[in-house]
Amino acid sequence: MGTLPFPLLVVIALLFSATLALTAEEASAIARRQLLTFEQHGDHIYIDINIKIKISNPRLLAAHTALQALKHALYSDPGNFTGNWDGPDVCAYNGVFCVPAPDDPSASVVASVDMNGADVAGHLPKEIGLMTDLAVLHLSSNRFCGIIPEEIKNMTQLYEFDASNNLFAGPFPDAVLRVPKLSYLDIRFNDFDGPIPPEQFLKPFDAIFLNNNRFTAGIPDTIGKSKASVIVLANNELGGCIPRTIGEAAATLDQLILINNSLTGCLPMEAGLLSTTTVLDVSGNALTGSIPQTLSGLSKVEQLDLSHNKFTGQVPKGVCELPALGAGEPVSLVQFLRAGRWRVQRGHGQGVRG
């Protein structure tokens, strides 16, 4: 796939959540089924190859095994998405895309599985890790439950993993951090909990979407080491302060969204070092103190939201006059920078009670 576009109004995506019709009892039953399967097979991947299926390409044979395991792990498929997942020709399966192998153009491999919006319910089997040629795995907007299996780390070519808008649960799926080529991680709108591992921000991800889960224990200091262009941690239960190291991410960070996380303390002065950032949103927290004058260094910021915090004092003149605020809009536009009850009128250089 080509370079993924990240629209300026990415925050709109935070408001979207799929309608999940699975009851809590059904979700619990699926999770138990997954764990029971894992216990029965131990640390080994269970492979039950139908002897009637003859596939000469061993890589497609492995993909066939994985896809059949996935089909049988589904609890519900009301749209019959996997209805044609039968027979040896996996490249003809709905949502499955094959390409010539980079290391052997004469052989085909499964490069992408796209189940976005299929409305299936079930769990991910261990066999998913057999698809070692897979570059893109899209599972968004379904009713997958349980955990992300450890075997996903065996998917050595996986570049993009989207498991958003599902019912996955448990701690952060550490196995994704051991996928060597993973660049795009989207696990928003699930039920993951516990801390975000510091290693998350030390991996070469270009986009990190962890919003709308139940992550806690603060934002790791390693966030400043991230090379990602987009980091969205909104609508969790992180608490704590915004690390002062955030300024170290200035070279690559385009969008940082930390909405509704019970964050406390002051907005660090180092946030003003994000000179290439276009979207900075820390609204809906409990940040205190004054708005740092260093935010006048946000020369590229087009959206800046500090609303619904506990800031005090005047809004610095340099913040009022940020050159890119309202980019693309008429110069006469009144640009609101919400900071508690304060608003800023672009071009007037003053704080006004709102």
Fold blueprint:
Layout: H1 24-41, H2 58-72, E1 74-76, E2 96-101, E3 104-114, E4 121-122, E5 136-138, E6 143-146, E7 160-162, E8 167-171, E9 184-186, E10 191-195, E11 207-209, E12 214-216, E13 230-232, E14 255-257, E15 279-281, E16 288-289, E17 303-305, E18 310-311, H3 317-320, E19 342-344, E20 351-353
List keywords for this structure.
354 residues, alpha/beta, ten-stranded mixed beta sheet, six-stranded mixed beta sheet, 3 helices, disordered N terminus
Stretches with pLDDT under 50, minimum 5 residues: 1-20, 43-51, 328-354
The SSE order reads HHEEEEEEEEEEEEEEEEEEHEE
Rg is 23 Å
Shape field: elongated
Mean pLDDT: 82
Content-based structural category: alpha/beta
Strand content: 15-25%
Distance between the termini: 46 Å
Describe the protein's architecture and organization:
The chain is 10% helix and 21% strand. By secondary structure, the protein is α/β, with parallel strands linked by helices. The strands form 4 sheets. It has a 10-stranded mixed β-sheet, covered by helices on one side. Strand 2 and strand 3 (104-114) form a beta hairpin. The model is unreliable at 1-20, 43-51 and 328-354 (pLDDT under 50).
